[in-house]
Design brief:
Elements: E1 2-3, E2 6-9, E3 18-20, H1 21-25, H2 33-47, H3 49-58, H4 60-68, H5 70-94, H6 105-117, H7 122-125, E4 126-135, E5 140-150, E6 159-167, H8 180-189, E7 192-194, E8 200-202, E9 208-215, E10 218-223, H9 228-246
Parallel strand pairs: 3-5, 6-9
Antiparallel strand pairs: 1-2, 2-3, 4-5, 4-7, 5-6, 7-8, 9-10
């Protein structure tokens, strides 16, 4: 559920609300976002410089407001695309009907190519898709994309992977962001899965974790670490996010007793 403090999960067992994994990770500084946002604004100006210059003279306030919002609009479109790709991935695995979506189809083709490459049998090799995990001790929850057996062990033995889909129309398929190993560590180390009826199920024993970067013309499976070190770092992010969510928005000004406005000042 969305709150003014970001996304939280309501615990079906009736306990306190659980901070989402992505919400917790939003407390980590991302310095690359500043030049990226500036680049998105620059692209918008370069795309139509004459109209931009004209509006800078005739309606500067509205133009500034729109340019400031460019990166947010792009982020919202990217998030919407990612949601639709995930929905299409579920339909692919379950072989259920799906609406026509030309923007999503190139990613679905790459996902299908990945499954063919690894000779994945959906009935045999996929343990779960789009499943919520819960760690009540540390107060968080998140949703994993797919738990999948792949022949990556010695002598071609199958190993259980937890894989997260990542989509982008611009970034190369080799990109891994700093917080993504922490995200997978959070999902991997949660002890409980929620069944479709919201009852608790013991979590799978995951052997390896990775990102499946989906691009319109390519895909790449990248293994990322998700061990105790990454999990401890994630828990630090949870603590930071909880502190920021509960911190006061203003603090008292301290004045000497004789200063005007001081509560300790005695009336003359």
């Amino acid at each position: 559920m969305a709150t003014e403090r970001g996304r939280y999960y309501r615990d079906p067992a009736g306990g306190p609300d659980l901070i989402s994994v992505t919400n917790a990770l939003s407390s980590i500084a991302k310095p690359a976002l500043v030049p990226w946002s500036a680049g998105m604004t620059a692209d918008a100006v370069i795309a139509d410089p004459i109209a931009t210059a004209r509006r800078a003279r005739t309606e500067p306030t509205a133009l500034r407001r729109e340019l400031v919002a460019v990166h947010r609009q792009y982020t919202e479109r990217a998030q919407d695309l990612g949601t639709r790709v995930h929905e299409r991935a579920v339909a692919l695995v379950l072989n259920t009907p799906h609406p026509a979506d030309p923007e999503v189809e190139p990613y679905a083709i790459q996902l299908a190519a990945f499954y063919r490459l690894w000779r994945v049998d959906f009935d045999r090799d996929i343990e779960a898709i789009e499943t919520t995990v819960v760690h009540r001790r540390y107060g968080y929850a998140g949703t994993g994309d797919v738990w999948l057996w792949l022949a990556t062990g010695p002598f071609g033995r199958r190993q259980l992977w937890l894989i997260d889909y990542k989509t982008s129309s611009r970034k190369p398929d080799s990109v891994v962001y700093d917080e993504q190993p922490l995200q997978l560590a959070a999902l991997r180390h949660a002890p409980v899965l929620l069944a479709p009826d919201d009852t608790d199920v013991e979590a799978f024993k995951v052997r390896r974790t990775g990102l499946l970067n989906l691009r319109p013309r390519s895909h790449r499976l990248i293994e990322v670490p998700s061990g105790r070190r990454q999990f401890r770092a994630f828990l630090s992010a949870v603590n930071t996010a909880r502190y920021l969510h509960s911190a006061p928005s203003a603090y008292d000004t301290i004045l000497p007793p004789w200063a005007p406005g001081s509560p300790d000042r005695k009336a003359a």
